[in-house]
Amino acid sequence: MSENAFLPFVDEASAGGGGTPERPSSHHQPPSWQVLVVDDDADVHESTAYALRHLEIAGRQLELLHAYSSVEGLELLKSAPDVAVILLDVVMETEHAGLAMVDRIRNELGLHNTRIILRTGQPGQAPEIETIRQYDINDYKMKSELTRAKLYATLTGAIRSFDQLRRLEASRRGLEQIVAASHQLIAEQGLQTFAEGVIIQIASLLGVDPEGLVCASIGSAGPGEPEQSFIVIAAAGPYRHLIQRQLSAIDNPEIVQSLTECLAQRRTQIHEHSLTLYFGGDEERAFAAYIASSTPLQHLDEELLEVFCTNISLCAANVMLVDRLRDHAFVDRMLGIPNRTALIQHLDERIRDQTPDPGLVLGMVDVDQFAETNDMFGHRYGDLLLKAIARRLTESLSSRCYIARVAGNTFAIVGHAGVVSPEELCPLFEAPFMVESLSRRLSVSMSFVRCDEVPASDGSEWLKDASIAMKRAKAAGQGRIEYYTPALGADSKERTLLLHGLQRAFEHDRLFLVYQPQVSLETGAVLGLEALLRWRSEDGSLVPPDRFIPVAERSGLIVSLGTWVLRSALYDLHRLHQAGYGQLRMAVNVSAVQFGQPDFLHTLDQALADKAVTADRLELEVTESVAIVGMERVATLMREIRSRRVAVAIDDFGTGFSSLSYLDCLPADRLKIDRAFVNLLETDRPGARIARMIVPLGHQLGMKVLAEGVETESQARLLREMGCDEAQGYLYGRPMPLPDLFSWLQTHAPRPQQP
Ligand code: C2E
Ligand code: MG
Ligand code: MG
Predict the structure, then answer these.
(1) Pick from 649, 628, 495: which is nearest to 585 by CA?
(2) Which tens digits make up the pLDDT trace of 552-564?
(3) What is the pTM of this model?
(4) Nearest Cα residue to atom 11 of ligand 1
(5) Where are the alpha helices (DSSP H) in 16-145?
(6) Domains of the chain in sequence order
(7) Is the confidence at residue 17, as pLDDT, over 60?
(8) Top mutation candidate among 518, 551, 589, 728 for ligand 1, by most atoms within 8 Å of CB
């Protein structure tokens, strides 16, 4: 142990007491007290030595040092700073040599603990009281008082106070070191760095080499779980190889035993060549440090050790708290993988470190129809499914990629193009996932951003790009893959602008409805109207619905917009009915997104009730895109709608139905042949024959057939010949605002019946 270690003193009375650390008995001889005699009279030296022979004070022997002048005395003290007491003659070389020496002992040599007893030949040489106080002189004796008993009593008192002063000083130094250590440790980030710091700090307190290890519990043992286990979180010196090892797996029985006992008994263990400190605090988070020493450890100041341990425990609690807060901010709590914030930070670092690494790719994987899975099997199942996906991704990719969860059912993977590619990622989803003994195959959509080709000033831009590409992939259906391109980005920017404009227009009533007549091909009678939405932008121009409807659908705005259309159309229909056109029905377009809303039927019922229109005058137009909601659900919804006597039309028929068998499942009232086919009627292009087939098909399925976009008489004639029931198109009337419709009806429809 080094000379200036602060712990080499121990209060004998406390050793081995209850609750104090264990200590094996030590056979080492305690050091003796050094007593320096300074006197120019050789007789005094001799008589002092004689008087003190064989004496022990506080269990230790005395060792006499001799100096015959103040100069010699000071020289000697320089090499023996541990002198406990100086018996000092007042008059030597000069009348005040003794007092001058006291001054230099205190102020030059800085020895404040050493006790000084002045001795004079005559009472007249006694120093002033003031001088005694100023120099911290402890006693003043006549040389004649140097009897054995008196000297013994005087020395015992002086040595006791020397010992106490030295302890106090050691404690103070120790406390200072502890405070400094705490300051140092509190600044450490992360438990491991902290634990490494603990080893260094303990070693420095003990004055030994930093060789040891710190063991911490890894979580608490829950019910049914094996006992709380401990692992080595930091290690230094020859123990370095033990890091991350389980305590029980360490191949050194002495260390295992010391640590196990320390942790089980929750107290510090002191052995001759090692010290095992217990750091309690939070019970779940107990940890212990084992420090080895090549020289015997003895006489440790246990109170200071305790203060040290308490301090370190408090620091550890802080470090763990900060760790936990960091975890909260950067780790997905459910899956235990980095979250969106962490991913952005990771990408930021890659941008900062080097201009994008060649071949760096950000991939995004999104589980298709996850919301439906959650609805169907419950959230617990959904959570387990996500965990299974995270596990598979981590197991197969984590050595080569950075994996994060960026949204509910969306994962991000950052890595080299060779790994983050559809070729590598798709196979990961081929095998089914086992969750609660249910085996389930998953469909996922993927998007990719080639980071070295797409400039970004921060990570969140790449993430946004990946999301844009993902949206595109999702819009195309399930299991699609999309790479981000700048064109896609520009597209998305434009759509964002469009959406904001649409929102503003909706809020400021700049949206309105126009109505296009639907007529009977056989009689020419006006049977109904289709409500079509119009948006007049701020500059007065009309934005075509084909542009803004998809934007409204993607953003979800279509839901409130659609409700408004339905209610407004029914309101206008009510006015038409009141004006005598009671036979007219109203067709309203309904987007798949609206159809998918759980409260769609409620919205419908509410609108019908509020607008006082009979349900059988309303028709809802849906396109093939409703299939996205799920065929079974669509069929059920249609039945529900028709049970209210509201009709259903299948819009734009022929443009996209992938399977005719779908049609068979959908209970609809009307089939609307898309304008594209009507256009082909008079040509010999391939679609022409299809148009001809649609009419009998619709009839066979029990539906009326309506042709859209009829612009010419010859088209109308052909359709009539084909047996098509109804038509809608510029030939009969363009979509018009309500006032225009009223005048149009005046001329084209039979006179209004009187209400
Ligand atoms: P859609 O439901 O198939 O509506 C028929 C479209 O054909 C209308 O276009 C109409 O103006 C146009 N059209 C009608 N007759 C002719 C014709 O003889 N020649 C030509 N060239 N076009 C004709 P519009 O109004 O531009 O609407 C486009 C699409 O926007 C609609 O197709 C519909 O899918 C959607 N849409 C319009 N309003 C709404 C709405 O309120 N809600 C929803 N969800 N979609 C709507
Ligand atoms: Mg329509
Ligand atoms: Mg249509």
Answers:
(1) 649
(2) 988 889 999 999 9
(3) 0.51
(4) 735
(5) 42-52, 70-79, 97-107, 129-134
(6) 3-168 (3.40.50.2300), 187-330 (3.30.450.40), 340-484 (3.30.70.270), 497-748 (3.20.20.450)
(7) no
(8) 589
